[in-house]
Amino acid sequence: MLTLHTADLLLTAVPGAAPVPGGAVVVDGATVAAAGPYEDVAAAFPQARVRRWPGVLTPGLRQWYAKWLLQQCYHPDPREYEELGERPLTGERLAALEMSEARRAGSVRRGIQQMLRHGTTAVIGICFDDPVVATALDRSGLRFASLAWRPGVLVDEPSLDPLRNVSDPVLAFAEPLTVGGRADLAVFDVPDEAALMKAGAGTCVATVLGGRLVYRRR
Question: Residue 118 to residues 17, 103, 154: CA-CA distances in angstroms?
Answer without folding.
Answer: 24, 23, 19
